[in-house]
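PT: before anyone asks, these are the final sequences, not the draft ones from last week. 495 residues across everything. Please model them as a single complex and drop the result in this thread when it's through.
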Amino acid sequence: MTEQTENQEVFFQEEAIANAKAYHFDNDKIDHRFDTCNVLGKFEGNWQSELDDIISKAKPLTFNSRGHADYVDYDPPKKHDNARQGSHEQSEAEFFEKIGFGEGYYNYDIINKVNPVGYPTMEKMIDLFKFERPRQATIHIQTTGQCFPWHLDIFQNRGEFIGEDKSKMMRVQVMLNDWQPGQWLGFGNYTYTGWKAGDFHTFDLDNVPHYTANASYHPRAMLMITGMRTPETEAFLWQAFSNKTVKV
Amino acid sequence: MTTKLDLMEEAISLSNYHFDKDRIDPRFDGAQVLGRFEGDWSDEVEQMIAISKTRSFGTRNMIDSQVNNDKVELDNPTGSKEDYQKMIEGFRPYEKEFFDKTDLDYYGYPIINKTNQIGPKVTSLFKAFKLTEPSTYTVHIQKVGQVFPYHIDFFHRRRWKDAPQEKIIRIQVMLNDWQPGQCLGYGNSVYTGWKAGEFHTFDHVSVPHWTSNANYEPRVSLLITGVKTDETEEFLYKARTSKTIKI
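LR: through. Structure below.
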């Protein structure tokens, strides 16, 4: 970590912001590449029984413990558990301390997570994207009162993704249940609401700050898949784009 | 046989809102922006952030965070301090019964910070609306991670039940600029992108609403409730037909 003088602003996302070379960081601007939700398609099917089980098994995680490997399916398997953010823990904790949310970093639950392995419909959805390794998948369940604060992703510049072709890297989020008033996802200066179960979307990994909160009394469920696009991925996305739904 | 309604069922039964997630009714689904104040009250905002107290749903009405106008100290236009305290204690079990069915800890989860210690500049914003008694204000400071869950107001059916209902208005003055991650929800619409000084209203009888802050900057707003006068209508016309109202 670089030395900081007392008066310097320390922001744990400095590295991520430096990577976001194309984003404007202007609250008064809408850049349609980034300040939007790029909806790609919609799955059609019935995964309610799986979802009920997933929700019952989801484990709460804080900003500090959000990287816990038990709740993510890694292909290839992860070499080390990043449960406590490793060498980044201190700078993150310092930032949250500075904004008056010090204890919250360790004890405020931002999301619940579940590993999707063993849920047939979830596995089918993951497979349909035909991502190449490195690939990871997890399920986010956000319950009432949980809020995942503003951040830029950094994983794509660390760990197993270092050296991979960024133009092929993709993160897809599949909404697993219908939107309820009070739930929202934020992408840059855009707020995404109103989704239906099965809708899936993406966003630019380096350039889109994002955040979520749930003020409804219904859990919000989402399958998150990250991997390297292949020609088969492109074929699937074309199918999704040019059909009303993709049956699973 | 009559089944006792829970907190939300009762509010829904008395609301004119459509409760259809696939519909937008512009009367209800959105903040009704009324105008914008122009001025600099940022020093008072900083002070209010520093002194504000954290509140849960169960403690949101604690009287030291919510006051009436200059003449009355409590947010209790039609009764005594003791009556007000009794009223709060009376409906808490009913509210808790509802929240116990959800994931939210009624007494433990911090939904908002509040203060009633406002300086002269923010006081002038309150007074500009020329509301008559009963009128009240409180300042909401929503910090990162705080979520004020979906609800429909019921103050007008409790401590404001004797006030002229058709003249009651609830106004929210945004005291600092919007930051990405801050959100107010009204029905099926979200309100974002505001600038300091913008003020809006909503149908407090019918519209479900909620707020959350996923940004690291506190969101600060002045929440005013009162009874409209002819002067209020004149002020609102002026606000609607002027770029800004200078304070």
